[in-house]
Amino acid sequence: MDVASLTIEQVRAGLLGRRFSAAELAAEALRFAEAQNPKTNAYLRFSPERALAAAKRVDEAIARGEDPGPLAGVPVAVKDVILTEGLTTTCGSGLLEHYVPPYDATAIARLEQAGGIIVGKTNCDEFAMGSSNENSAFGPVRNPVAPDRVPGGSSGGSAAAVAQGTAVVALGSDTGGSVRQPASFCGVVGVTPTYGRVSRYGLTAFASSLDHIGPLARNVRDAAVLLGVIAGRDPADSTSADAPVPDYTKALDGQVKGVRLGLPREYLKDLTSETGDLLARGVGVLKKLGCEVRDISLPSTEYAIATYYIIATAEASSNLARFDGVRYTMRSASSDTLSDMYRNTRGTGFGAECKRRIMLGTYVLSAGYYDAYYLQAQKVRGLIAQDFARVFELVDAVIAPVSPFPAFRLGEKVDDPLAMYLSDIYTITGSLAGIPCMSVPCGKTGAGLPVGMQILARHFDEPTMLQLADAFEKAGGSA
Amino acid sequence: MKITEKEVRYVADLANLKLTDDEVKRFGADLDQILEHMDKLKEIDTSDMEPMAQVLYDAEETATLRADVPRPPLSNQAALANAPQPGAGYFKVPKVIER
């Protein structure tokens, strides 16, 4: 068996046809992942005991003649911001190097209930803050396609693991593009579901009004299966929606003739030429499939970066206040008073980007600046959401780039935080509006670097989004 | 200059972050550049907009309420398992009252 290219369907067929057992597959996947990891640093740690125990349960279910679940035996990588009971979860931070969660995230419980096998926890930017995976306390991740380049971030380890074939699918988290941008850079599929579609219980909070858990996969179908498993109301997360979860794989019927697509003119100005060319070619493929493409405008786009980085850092400064040296493993040793202990622990525990964002978020919330920055940003967020609402009266989905450029070199942008923030422009608008969006591979540059195409849809219309991506992939758009 | 060194130190204090002198300089310069970009938001008239404080989905106002039924909480032992300094079933901290 070639673990590096397996799909969920192939795993299922292999298990039910008794060509291999879940235990054999798990052992082989772990062996392969551990052997490959030095090339990318995608995994921070492996979980062989947990994986083999889960595989055993799948094998026993099959032996009893039961349905072993939609993810039966499927090796899954999990971003290290998602809590796993008894399995160290660091959030890419030195502050949590030894943190062992006392409970599982709901998404973790659901994927294991569905027969999924957790191979290990993947590297990421510290507390999911970054666009390159260079902000991890445990070293950067290398892009498996081009090892001198970043995999994107912040779910860089999850995207790299899927691209490298060391997991069939992975869970990432997306606040402003952290699933879609690394998916684009590594040449895999990455889905950010509608806000509230997937429970965030057990996802370490970064910016609560923007945080999502989302799947990464090597094809649209696998992403759709994983999304179906983790989606749905969860009493432990009051922001999770009570909307019914459709069978997303049923949407993958190729019937995209007549689907109306919008191409926002504001998104096409600042692309590198190859990214622009590949996107244009992708739009051509969709036209050939019978989609109607029209020019649209999202006029508030130019305010999106400022809006996002005010709201996200404000929420982060509040959420990260809990890491104060009292409950979460690390405490600065030499502090005589409580307030010194807080300051020393946080000053030495957080990395530079986290501190920068905590500072920014604290500033925009502080007396005298709240109205000018935070409140104004919340109002502009409303305008950005209105832009999309208006556009979705005319079209069924929006097609856009994911990033202005393909994967950049390690170190290329670390000294210019604003430039790094500005590169998030095409992914943060959908995050601010709370709509479902995804990246699907749409070809490679002359140098062989993958480029993703973004599809954005109406709230809870993941079916149309996945249907388009699947039809695009099957028509050869991703090649 | 959007932000002075004194303001950087004040904000660090609010955020409970001890910064080195180098960090104060560096974050001051970074914040200055970022806040300059954020001033863009002052261009837009938002007088008829409500702040979008939440991303809501269509549901009854009571949709997120649940029955008030007691459930077993996280055990004391589990809650303290990650504490840097547990003691007698509590989180221990340095003295709170400063002289």
**Beta-strand content bin of chain A:** 5-15%
* Shape category of chain A: globular
Tell me the fraction of residues in β-strands of chain B, as a range. Answer: under 5%
Would you state the CATH class of the domain at 3-248 in chain A? Alpha Beta
Number of strands of chain B: 2
Helix amount of chain B, in percent? 25-40%
- Briefly note the CATH topology name of the domain at 3-248 in chain A: Amidase signature (AS) enzymes
Structural class assignment of chain B: mainly alpha
CATH topology value of the domain at 1-44 in chain B: Histone, subunit A
Helical run tally of chain A: 15
Form type of chain B: flat
Low-confidence stretches of chain A: none
Give the fraction of residues assigned to helices of chain A.
Answer: 25-40%
Topology:
The complex is a heterodimer of chains A (479) and B (99).
Chain A: H1 8-16, H2 22-40, E1 43-46, H3 48-63, E2 75-79, H4 106-113, E3 117-122, H5 156-164, E4 169-174, H6 180-186, E5 189-192, E6 212-217, H7 220-230, E7 260-264, H8 273-288, E8 292-296, H9 304-319, H10 338-349, H11 352-365, H12 371-391, E9 397-401, H13 417-422, H14 425-433, E10 437-444, E11 450-457, H15 462-474
Parallel strand pairs in A: 2-3, 2-4, 7-8, 7-9
Antiparallel strand pairs in A: 1-3, 4-6, 5-6, 5-10, 9-11, 10-11
Helix pairs in contact in A: 2-3, 5-6, 9-11, 9-12, 12-14
Chain B: H1 5-14, H2 21-38, H3 76-80, E1 86-87, E2 90-91
Antiparallel strand pairs in B: 1-2
